[in-house]
Specification:
This protein has a five-stranded mixed beta barrel. Helix 1 packs across helix 6 and helix 2 packs parallel to helix 5. It contains six helices and ten strands; from the N terminus they run βαβββαβββαβαβαβα. The relative contact order is 0.23. It has a single domain, classed as Rossmann fold. About 30% of the residues lie in helices and about 30% in strands. By secondary structure, it is α/β, with parallel strands linked by helices. It binds ligand LNDFFVEH. This is Futalosine hydrolase. Pathway: Quinol/quinone metabolism; menaquinone biosynthesis. It comes from Desulfobotulus alkaliphilus. Pfam families: PNP_UDP_1. Keywords: Hydrolase, Menaquinone biosynthesis.
C-alpha cells in the first residue's frame, strides 16, 4: 500500500497532525525518525525535518527513495507580506515556491534569476518551483466546499535570513508578488522534483513578515490551524487528482 507524507519543520507543527491520526507509532527510516499513522485507510508518514532549507533537503532526500510516497503535503506556519491581504491564522496554499537566496546579485535586495539550471529538466527559472496543479486545485475545491469560499493561494517565498524589518518585508512582497514567507518550502519542492514526487504546501499565518514584536506573533494558533487543514486533506483529497511526474 502506497503512503502519503506530511512534512513539517518543527515538532509543534507536526503534533496536531499526529494527534488526529489513528494507530500512530514511531518508526526509523534510513536513520531518520518519522511517525506512521492512518487517516481512515490511508497510511500516512509524518517527517519533522527541522527548520530551514538544509534540514529539509537533507532529511526529505534521505527518506524519499525508500518511502516513495504518492504525494507530499508540506504544512506549517508562515509570515504574511504587508500587501498580501492575509490575516493572522489564515490558511494559505502555495501556487509556487521561490528560494529568494538563489540567484545573481542585482541592484535591488532581490537577486536576478540565476543564469544556469540547478537540476536537469528542472523548473524554467532556477530556484522557482510550481506546486503540483492537481493537488493544489483539488485542495482548493475541497476547502471551497468546506468553507464556502476559495482560500487564498499564490506565490510563497523561502528565505534563510528571516526578514526582520517592515521595509524589507514591503520590498520583498512588492518585488516578488509573494504572499507568504517561510524557511523550508523551496527546499522541499526542489527535493520532491529530484525524486519525481508531487508536492503541495499549506501554511497558517503566524505573524506579519518583518515584525520582531512577540505580541504580533501567534505560533500556537497557526500550528493548530495548519494541522487541522492538513488532516482534512489527508482524509478527503481523492486519489484520482494527482499525477506523479517522471524522475528528473
Ligand atoms: O522568531 C521567533 O522569535 C520564533 C520563536 C519561536 C519559534 C519561531 C519559529 O518557529 C519561526 C520559524 C519557523 O516558522 C516559519 N516562519 C513563520 N513565520 C516566518 C517568517 O516571517 N519568515 C520566515 N519564516 C517564518 C519558518 O518556516 C520556520 O520553520 C520563531
Amino acid at each position: 500500500m502506497k503512503s502519503l507524507l506530511v512534512l513539517t519543520a518543527v515538532d509543534r507543527e507536526a503534533a496536531p497532525v499526529r494527534a488526529g491520526l489513528d494507530q500512530t507509532k514511531d518508526v526509523i527510516l534510513s536513520g531518520i525518525p518519522l511517525t506512521l499513522g492512518f487517516a481512515g485507510k490511508r497510511r500516512v508518514y509524518i517527517l519533522v525535518s527541522g527548520p530551514g532549507v538544509f534540514n529539509t533537503a537533507a532529511k526529505l532526500g534521505a527518506v524519499l527513495p525508500s518511502l516513495q510516497p504518492e504525494w507530499i503535503l508540506q504544512a506549517g506556519c508562515g509570515g504574511m507580506y504587508p500587501e498580501s491581504g492575509l490575516s493572522m491564522g489564515d490558511i494559505v496554499l502555495a501556487a509556487s515556491e521561490r528560494d529568494l537566496h538563489t540567484g545573481l546579485e542585482s541592484k535591488s535586495a532581490i537577486p536576478s534569476p540565476l543564469p544556469f539550471p540547478l537540476m536537469e529538466n528542472g523548473p524554467g527559472i532556477p530556484g522557482y518551483y510550481d506546486a503540483d496543479t492537481g493537488l493544489l486545485h483539488g485542495a482548493l475545491s475541497l476547502f471551497a466546499k468546506k468553507e464556502g469560499r476559495m482560500l487564498p493561494h499564490g506565490p510563497f517565498i523561502t528565505v534563510s535570513t528571516v526578514t526582520a524589518s517592515k521595509e524589507t518585508a514591503a520590498s520583498i512582497g512588492r518585488e516578488t508578488g509573494g504572499l507568504v514567507e517561510n524557511m523550508e518550502g523551496a527546499a522541499a519542492f526542489h527535493t520532491a522534483a529530484l525524486f519525481g514526487i508531487p508536492i503541495f504546501e499549506i501554511r497558517s499565518i503566524s505573524n506579519p513578515v518583518g515584525s520582531r514584536k512577540s505580541e504580533d506573533w501567534d505560533l500556537e494558533t497557526a500550528f493548530i490551524r495548519a494541522g487541522e487543514a492538513a488532516l482534512y486533506l489527508l482524509h478527503t483529497l481523492p486519489r484520482h487528482i494527482w499525477h506523479p511526474k517522471p524522475n528528473l
